[in-house]
Amino acid sequence: MATVTTPLAEQAESIFTNLGYSVSNEGPKLRAERKWRVVHVRVGEDPAGETDGELQCFVTWDDRAGEVYDTLVTRDPEYEWAVLGVSEDGEYECYRQRGTAPN
């Protein structure tokens, strides 16, 4: 029997829903809201040029998380950001600005 892989966007929505966020689709990105916090979730996108919103989360497959993290560290954007590196089985690691870097 073949392994079923859940698309990255579905993984991202599931992660934020499980964290207690209300998630809505805004075209190529997701908007995750909880209390006063709004996180703009970018799925599989290159972080270059993203400026809207104070909180940004870039969700990518775990093998690309280091590259996305390094891009953000180099750019040093003014918004708060995090990178979620997601594996095919749904497990994920969160790498934050000025925090833990992926190996």
N/C terminus separation: 32 Å
Summarize the main sheet. Answer: 6 strands, mixed
The assigned structural class equals alpha/beta
The CATH architecture category equals 3-Layer(aba) Sandwich
**Strand order in the largest sheet:** 1-2-3-4-5-6
* SS summary, helix count: 2
**What is the helix fraction of residues, given as a range?**
10-25%
Secondary-structure element string: HEEEEHEE
Mean pLDDT, to the nearest integer, reads: 85
How many beta-strand elements?
6
> What percentage of amino acids are in beta strands?
35-45%
CATH class: Alpha Beta
- What are the segments in which pLDDT stays under 50 over at least 5 consecutive residues? none
What is the gyration radius calculated from CA atoms?
13 Å
- For this structure, the CATH topology is Trna Endonuclease, Chain: A, domain 1
Envelope shape: globular
The tally of structural domains comes to 1
What can you tell me about this protein's structure?
The chain has helices at 8-18, 65-75, and strands spanning 22-26, 29-34, 37-43, 55-61, 80-86, 92-96. It has 103 residues and is α/β, with parallel strands linked by helices. It has a single domain, classed as Trna Endonuclease, Chain: A, domain 1 (3-Layer(aba) Sandwich), CATH 3.40.1350. Strands 1-2-3-4-5-6 form a six-stranded mixed beta sheet, with helices on both faces. Strand 2 and strand 3 (37-43) form a beta hairpin.
